[in-house]
Amino acid sequence: MTRGGSKSRPQEPERKCIATGESQPKAGLIRFVVGPDGMVVPDLLDKLPGRGIYVAANRAAIATAIKKGLFSRAARQQVTVPDGLLDLLEKGYANRVVHLIAMARKAGQAVAGYEKVKDWLSKDQAKVLIQATDGSDRQKSKLRPPRERDRYINCLTGDELGLAFGRENVIHGALAAGGLASRVVEEAKKLTAIRALDSGGDKGHRKGTKTR
User: How far apart are the first and last CA of the chain?
Assistant: First the structure.
């Protein structure tokens, strides 16, 4: 999703992933809590009450936590992991990214369409380039993202990006500088990691999710 990789914020609190055993900034982790019924619940907004259980935001780590019963171990009690947790997370983060882009659009901080995006890029008004996974590679290669880190997002399909802009299908989008852009980038990183590591290829758009 990014050029040059991600850059951690030095003062951000760190938490340990129950699957890898490694500590890292919370931005790269997914927080879970255990509900009153003993069900594991993903806390995508990081607001749910209760003791947090953290897993690195990628399919491999989450799959390991499920397979090895690490949620129960971390919670120190027997818990239930919902069926299709990975798909639930993927859908949840896709909705989050779409929602945040839509907010940016309504605030005048996002545009869609090849010509508008090209214009923003030429004027250095676009701080983040967004392109659909199922768009033409040849067409997408005509637009280059800004050179700074975390300036390229490629984790949504054209239909999903269309939802963000109130259209049927969108291939090219751009975000202006601001807090919303930073939030979109952060959530898109998680969605990219969850989708990109699906080796089964059961969803066509995942094959197109890559790092540029």
Answer: 6
Helix (H, G, I), strand (E, B) or coil at 189: helix
Contact 24, 56 (CB under 8 A): yes
CA angle 170, 176, 180 (to 5 degrees): 90
User: What are the φ/ψ torsions at residue 93 (nearest 5 degrees)?
Assistant: -70, -35
Q: What is the largest CA-CA distance in the chain?
A: 56
User: Cβ(158)–Cβ(208) under 8 Å?
Assistant: no
- For 79, the enclosing helix (H) or strand (E) is none
185 φ/ψ angles, rounded to the nearest 5 degrees: -60, -45
- Taking residue 15's Cβ as centre, other Cβ atoms within 10 Å add up to 18
Walk along the chain (212 residues) and give the pLDDT tens digit of each residue: 444 444 444 567 899 999 999 999 998 999 999 999 999 999 999 999 999 999 999 999 999 999 999 999 999 999 999 999 999 999 999 999 999 999 999 999 999 999 999 999 999 999 999 999 999 999 999 999 998 889 999 999 999 999 999 999 999 999 999 999 999 999 999 999 998 633 333 333 333 333 33
- State the Cα–Cα distance between residues 115 and 144, nearest whole angstrom: 13
- Half-sphere CA count of 34, side-chain side, radius 13 A: 16
